[in-house]
Amino acid sequence: MNVFKILSLDGGGMKGVFSAAFLCALEEKLGKRTADYFDLVVGTSTGGIIAIALGLGISAKDILDFYMSEGKHIFGNNGFVQRAIKGIRGLVSPRHDVRHLENALRNHFGDKRLGHSKTRLVIPSFNPATGDVYLYKTAHHSTLKEDYKKLAREVARSTSAAPTYFSGNKIGLLTHLVDGGLWANNPSMVAVTEAIGLLGRSPEELALLSVGTSSSQLSVPEKTRSSGGLLRWAWTMKDLFMHVQSITAHKQASNVLRRSGRYVRIAPIGSDLSIRMDDPKEALTLIPFGERAARNSRSKVENMFFAARAPEFVPEYTLTL
Predict the structure, then answer these.
(1) pTM for the whole thing?
(2) Beta pairing partners, 208
(3) Is residue 40 within 8 Å of residue 51, measured between CB atoms?
(4) pLDDT, tens digit, for every residue of 233-256?
(5) CA gap 105, 128 in Å, rounded
(6) Which of 295, 191, 273 lies closest to 15, judged by CA?
(7) Residue 51 in contact with residue 121, Cβ under 8 Å?
(8) CB within 8 A of 12, min separation 6: which ones?
(9) Residue 136 pLDDT > 90, yes or no?
(10) Which residue, 175, 287, 74, 49, is CA-closest to 295?
(11) How far is CA 56 from CA 96, 143, 153, 232, in A?
(12) H or E element, residue 301
C-alpha cells in the first residue's frame, strides 16, 4: 500500500513561530526538507503562509527567520499604551496596517505563483459577502484550472486576513476574502476530505501530521456557564470558538484515521502558553517549545513521515508565464 502523507498546519498569527520552530528542528535533525516527504500540505492563516513557503522550496529555518525578522514590522510595537490604542481603534477598524504584511509577503514570495509549488497545496479562506468557504488549490486535479495562476503572496494575504486585525483581501469588484481560521483554523479535516473526496484515497492509505500553534488550557468561568449574558460570554467567545473548532477537527481526524493508525497531532497546551497572536515578542518564547516538541516526537514522526520521499508532484496544468 502506498501511504499518502499529509501535513496540516493550524492558524494562530505570530504563534506560527511554534510550527516553524518545530519543522526547523526536525529538518535540522533529520537533514531532510519537509516538502519532499509530504503528498499534500494544507495550512490556514499563518499555517497557510508556512504551507506556501514550504511548497515554494523555502526551508523551515528561513520560514522561522521570516517570523523573527518580519513580525515586529507586521504587528508593530505592542507595549501597554500601544495595545490600548490598537484595542480602541479595533472597535471601528482593523488593528494593524495591512501594508506591512503585504510588504513582508512580497519581499519573501516575490512574483512566484501557487503553481510553482513542488507539492499539492490547499489553503483555506472565507468569503464573508456570500457566507461561503473559499479554498485555494494547486492544480492537483483536472477540475482545478485557475488557482495555480494566482500570486502566492495574494493567496497568503487572503488566508491570513484575520477580521479585526487586518482588512480583507480584495480579489474582485466587491469580493474581499478573510482568514480561513473562521471555519478551519485547524484544517486537518479539510486535508482529509481533499485526500479522500477529490484525490480518491482511502482512509487506510492516509498518514496525517497535524501541527498546532499552542494554546492555554481553556475553561469557561462558572458564572458565565450558569448565567452569563452577552457581556460575559463575549470575553471568552473568540477563544472558545477557536478551541471548539480545533478540537472537533482533531477528534474527527482521529476517528477517520483510526484504522490506519497514522495520525499525529502536535499541539502543546499549558498555562504558560497564553500568548496573543499579534505579539511578536511574546511569540518568540514559543521557539523552545517547538524545539522540544520536535525532540520528543522525532522517532515517531521520522518513522511515519520521513522514512521515504513522496512521489514527485506532477500538476495537471503548468504555468506558461
Answers:
(1) 0.92
(2) 6, 263
(3) no
(4) 666 666 777 788 889 999 999 999
(5) 23
(6) 273
(7) yes
(8) 18, 45, 46, 47, 181, 185, 212, 213, 214, 277
(9) yes
(10) 287
(11) 27, 22, 11, 44
(12) helix 287-305
